[in-house]
Amino acid sequence: MSVLSVRGLSKIYGQGQSQVKALNHIELEIEKGEFVAIMGTSGSGKSTLLNMISGLDTYDQGEVLISGENIKGYSDYELTRLRREKIGFIFQLFNLIPVLSVIENVTLPAMLTVENKKELEKKATDLLNLVGLGSYIQSKPNLLSGGQQQRVAIVRALINDPELILADEPTGSLDSKTSKAMMSILRNFCDELGHTLIVVTHDANVAAYANRVIFMHDGIICDTLNLKNSNLMDHEVVRIIASKIEELSL
Amino acid sequence: MRLLIKAAINSIFNHKARNAFLVLGISLGVALLVIVQILLASLQESNEQTIKDLHGDFDIVVGYQDSHKSLTKSEIDTIERIEGVEKISPFLYPYLNKEDKYDMWSEPTYIGFNNDELAYEYPFVSIKSGHFPKAEEALISPTYAKLNNLQIGSVIEMNFPPQGKREVTVSGISEEHEALTNMVILDFHWLQEVTLNDGITTALIIKLDDIKKKSDVVQELRELNQDFFIDNRLEIDNERNNIGGLGPFVKGLNIAIYLVSALILISTMRMSVQEKQKELATLRLLGFGKKHIMFLVLIETMIVGLVSLAVGIIIGILIPHLTLDVFLRLMDLPNTGIILPYQDILFSLGIFTVVIFLSSLIPSYIASLSPPLVVYRGVKNTQGITKRYFIFSLLYAVFITILFALNQWHWQSKFMYVINAVSFIALIFITIPLMFVLFEKGVSLLDRKLKVRAEALLATKNLLRQLSRNVQISTIFTLGVVISIIGMMVLTSVKANTIETIMDTYPNDLKLVSVGSEIEKGFPFSFYDLVSENPNIEAHFYTNEMLFESINLPLKQGTQNEVILAISGTDLQYSLDRNEVKKKDGINLEEELNPNGVMITENTSKKLGYHLGDVIEANFFENTDGVNKKEFIVEGIITNSKHMSDDYKIFTTKKNMEDMFQIHTLHSVEMNIVSDVAQQETMEDVQSLIQQPQFANTILYNRAEELNDLEEQLLQRFFILFLAVGLIIMFTIIGLMNSTASNIKERIQELSMLRVLGYTKKRLFSLLLLEGALLTGTVGIFAVGLSTISSYCLLESLNATTFPSMPLLLGSIIVLSPLIGMGAVLFPTLWATRQDVMKGLR
To answer: Which CATH number covers residue A166?
Structure first.
């Protein structure tokens, strides 16, 4: 069963002559455990699509189904609950709460629902150990490096065992070495824990970690690159993705 | 320079809402400064008019209380020339202390006044009908007229020794006045002539051009002649002080306004600096020096401060014009028009301007301190307390607690109680950051043991975010709590103590007292018989007294082995009938008391040490040389003396007083109106009774009126206290609104992130409300506790006998503290929860 089904999704900004079709009849199916990268030039609609999927923004036409649940017409409360229970988020700027410690930041989304605090803390500690932050659990975010902060944000996104993880330019604030490390972590989570991940990025090196790369241009999906079971070398994948992006830019 | 000013003005307009709130807050403070000065001055003027109407418009009486002496011509000339003396008027007592010599005891007291404007101000010259007496004319009291059946135009024969009798025509009747009952007012020069007192002036009435010069003039009069009797009219000063007593309250209010205005200006401008840190850092990177940054922020703060000042002055002058009437009506005073005390207002505004300038320096200095690179990288959001501060606070708290304990149980020094009070107040303010930190630690600790709601955990942690700004807002609020509690407790204690004094002085509803002293001849016993016939009155009589020295006192009174006591006759049967007397067997009727048998109250027994059966050895002195010893036997201890004034008194029967001392008259009759329905009617009965000529030399005191007067005085003080507290709460709310709005703006990304993570609008709303509640609630509880201890210390230092517990006030403050914080953050919170999540994340 698809974790995410997007059917005929359209979004129009503005009115009259200044009307802009941000999304134009998008059709998309993502299966459980899939790692999908969405690429495109600026203004292609990739971030808008992510916001529609997460219920952060409203759409004009079409349907979004998360684990078969159609979110159309959902109230603010229902969308909030959906995000809390089924979606994990990773942002470019990490968005950690500065007054909370690392473990508190990680457990924060789960604190709204989980009753057993000890179990929750154990799970958070285990996940933090997995990403190499075991010795920083009581530290405040401002004492961590950018890479460390993004790892905290990844663990936070995973704490509720979401069916779908949405990452908007997760490596945008990181250097290339740290970016690679970050993407390896995300890849491992998908492979080993079966999480479904959608990453919006403009970096071909990041997209190369995905099973499938979707290319967007002017609000439509113009191409798809399936990398699952591909025998291509990493640098070849990066080169193909980069050339496709270049084509779109022209 | 011009660029910096332009930048500062632009910055103000960029934060219109916040600066408008700031201007509103500070200008209301300025307005209040001006309003209280104007209202106080107008109130003083109105009160002064009432005093003048009641007591006369003069300030000093100087001269002699003896007709053997006179002011000399040169003394009168000198007095007239003293700086501050506006005018004088002479008067003459021809027979004061010459009554024996001229056998004048049976005659009324003669006083001669000059027919001038100032003489009319003297209470004795209060003409109800007729005119001021000329030669061979007299102004008499209504009582004297009633007693002698006289009216205007009647001719009376008066004795003017050594010249003999003269016929005098009644020119007028004076107002009803207890002091005038036995006085006759005559023309000054005619009285001089007819009594052969040419050139004699017993005393002078003096009017000053400025009341503030009174003490200087009195000093000069003392230096002129040390024998002068000087009446500087303290009773009027006391009445002035009733209004003047508001002065310290107004000063306190002014100080509170200066302080909270400074705090709100500093904290709001610091918010502005915080928000502009990147901008300021860029300027620093572009080559602007610390001096320039400081100047930029200083100009911005000064502009806001001075605009507030101008707006405040306008509001402050307008409001009294609209409200003076209501205000004076509230205080039961006539409206004598608005007084603008320019000097006081300018002085207050001058101080305020200095406060604004000094307050402006702090945010500008802080802005200039930030190194450009550190600032550009971002703001450090979480602040903590230093170890040094923690240890200092802890040591200070322990030290002052030990000091308080030592004073409470060992030294009991009044001065140390003041130190204790100030120390505890200081502790409240010193430990506000510590309270936040401890509260946060406490909640974190609790979270480890139990599951604390995520909002609570986050809200407590946010207390420490922008700690110094939060501390400033909390300080303003704490000031309000401290002023409320100490003010209310001190005023309530003063009220309770004064009521206690009034109840001691007037243990019953009404008290009829002879105008003479206790040992002079009083009024006839028939008054008691008459009032006792009224079923609505329960009356107790007290005969005139005899004073004696108790020479076998069992308990020392201070360092004294002897004490002056009074013996008075009363209706002991009242207490006997109610079994409220510990007595020897066999005494059931007061007639069964021995001729030298007395009763004392339980209080007197405890105080003096006399017990049942003891002998009180008394030394009566008819005059200073003579000694006349008597012994009284204590035959009863009155256990319930609520209806009696028993201070240094012993009691016997009326018959014993007649037999022992030939005292047949009463000094006072205490009355209780026992009927609730016929109160007014009974009062009127008593008042009509005392119109009878034989009771003319009496004054009727009404306890309810005394209590009403007290209520009125305290009402004014409570009014100013509430004004101060109201203002401070308003400042807190404005400060918190500004602070929260700024804080939310800074945290909008974080708040949007919480929404993304699954926080509903409702939970976000709860989180922000909780943050507001914690900001005032955390310090509220602590401030209530320490303010109560400070109030106790202050009351101890003031010798108070009543320590109000005021659970309602303290409970209300504890409950209201978080609610005020929640109320203040409500609108910014509503705004925050309505923000678009997507926009926030960007």
So the answer is: 3.40.50.300
Q: Does residue A239 carry a pLDDT above 80?
A: yes
Residue A3 lies inside a defined structural domain of this protein = no
**pLDDT for B683 beyond 90:** no
Same domain, B203 and B111: yes
* Encoded tokens for B268: 């709001």
**Most confident listed range (B65-79, B313-327, B701-715):** B65-79
Question: Which of B658, B676, B703 delimits the end of a domain?
Answer: B703
Share of chain B above pLDDT 90, in %: 19
Indicate if B15 and B127 belong to the same structural domain: no
How sure is the predictor about B308, in pLDDT bands with cuts at 50, 70 and 90? confident
pLDDT at A136: 92
Q: Identify whether A107 is part of a domain.
A: yes
Q: Of A110-114, A194-198, A217-221, B672-676, which gets the smallest average pLDDT?
A: A110-114
How confident is the model at residue B709, as a pLDDT? 75
Hey, are the CB atoms on A111 and B457 less than 8 Å from each other?
yes
* Cα B814–chain centre separation: 26
Judge if B773 and B802 occupy the same domain: yes
Residues B370, B251 share a domain: yes
Structure token pair of residue B128: 């109800």
Q: Which two tokens stand for residue B62?
A: 């100087």
- Report the complex ipTM: 0.78
Please list the residues that pair with B62 across neighbouring strands.
Answer: B204, B230
Q: What is the pLDDT of residue B379?
A: 45
Of B380, B461, B759, the CB nearest to A100: B461
DSSP H or E segment with residue B668: strand B666-673
CB pair distance less than 8 Å for B758 and A83 = yes
Whole-number Å distance between alpha carbons of B195 and B132 = 19
Answer positive or negative: Cα dihedral of A40, A43, A45, A47.
positive
Q: Using an 8 Å CB-CB cutoff, list residues of chain A that contact chain B.
A: 51, 54, 56-57, 76-77, 80-81, 83-85, 89, 91, 93, 95, 97-100, 104, 108-109, 111-113, 115, 117, 140, 142, 156, 160
Are A117 and B451 an interchain contact pair (Cβ–Cβ within 8 Å)? yes
* Domain assignment of residue A218, given as a range: 33-58+84-249
Cα diameter, chain A: 57
Q: Residue B573 CA to chain centroid, in angstroms?
A: 42
Shared-domain flag, residues B321 and B188: no
**Token pair belonging to B616:** 């009180």
Which tokens hold the place of B297? 């922020």
- Residue A4 falls inside a structural domain: no
Number of domains in chain B: 4
- Are B227 and B92 part of one and the same domain? yes
The total of structural domains in chain A comes to 1
Is the predicted pLDDT of residue B638 greater than 50, yes or no? yes
Give the DSSP H or E segment for A197: strand A197-200
Are residue B530 and residue B421 in the same domain, yes or no?
no
Domain limits at B561?
507-703
**Mutate which of B457, B756, B760, B834 to disrupt the A interface (most A C-beta within 10 Å)?**
B756
Task: Name which of A76, A100, A112 is nearest B758 (Cβ-Cβ).
Answer: A112
Average pLDDT over residues A195-204: 89
Q: Which candidate, A7, A4, A43, A45, places its Cα nearest to that of A220?
A: A45
CB contact under 8 A, B754 and A97: yes
Query: Who wins on pLDDT, B151 or B716?
Result: B151
CB contact under 8 A, A89 and B756: yes
Q: What is the pLDDT of residue B381?
A: 47
**Whether residue B574 has pLDDT greater than 50:** yes
CA–CA distance from B47 to each of B39, B177, B238, B252 (Å)? 12, 21, 12, 21
Give a yes or no: residue A18 inside a domain: no
Q: Rounded to a whole number, what is the distance in Å from the CA of A134 to chain B's nearest CA? A: 19
From B380, B415, B430, the end of a domain falls on B380
Pair B46, B114 in one domain = no
